[in-house]
Automatic annotation (TrEMBL):
Pfam families: CENP-L. GO terms for cellular component: chromosome, centromeric region; nucleus. Belongs to the CENP-L/IML3 family. It comes from Linnemannia gamsii. Transmembrane segments: none annotated. Keywords: Centromere, Chromosome, Nucleus. This is Uncharacterized protein.
Amino acid sequence: MFICCSYAAFLYNKTWNIHKTTPFFNYNKHQQTQYEGELLTYIAANARNLISSALTGPSQTGGAAATITNRTGGAFPGQIDSSGNNLVETLDELGDIRGIKFQSLNTSDVQDSDEERTGEVADTDSIVVTVTVRPKGRTRDQAYYCVIVPDQRHRKASQTQAFTHFGVILFKAPVMIAQLVNQWLERRFDCRICHLVFQMFELRKIVESALEVSYNHPQGHDHGKERPVELCYSLPQAVVGLKTISVSLAADDVRQLFVSRVEDSETGILDGIEAHCSDSMKIDFSRLVLSRAGCSSWYIASEGKIKVFPDIATRYSLTDFIQAITVCGT
């Protein structure tokens, strides 16, 4: 089935946990109905085996919650606990599984001129797995999502190949459901799926390129009402009473930093921001590690979480943003 809404709109305003996957073996885009039944059977058969181990282990959400706040006092997306870790959605008991649905989303921002949508699943479509649950003790169903995103580097791969090159899997689901879906995908398509945690240089590269595209342009955009650019750094060595340092810059200030760069300079915008803040605040950024970053278009955390906003459509490319993530961890 093809979802009649855009790939971007479906992903907007949700916090996604990122997983890396190897290619799927013998995936058939015409057998989605069969996959729905197989996954439903697998979850029903294995959910109880997972509950005890998932819920008796160390809590991933313990402690008082803290939020990153922007300069205007609003909450920045992506809550963290008192230890500086991202919160994880939890589900005490699975409840009743109301249904499994496999659907397709058009991954490309703009279709090639010679391509027409006919309702057929294209090779570049993302696969959305929706698990609908009636949590125990509740009267309303809750939908959880898994989005399997193709690797655009293999977009022109032969359709006769046994492997389908998906790059990343995005989860909006409690750990228990995500783990069950992961297990089934690995068994069914002979692939390996693991949580993606960004290395420092990978996160910096993604943030650098995203800021470059979003803010390095002549005057013309009105940045006045935009969310500021936020950079959060962690300290490799513990300092009593200090765990993170956050830097917030107005969008116009970031643009001015681009404008003020020496022509043909190879200095990146992150180095420029850090040098600017170092001069004014006497902070040695070489001893800090970038752990989270965000702006009005996107948010990304080294723990493997992203959130995208509608503004990315006018500033950047959602496909390019996801693809920049896809090449990490390889």
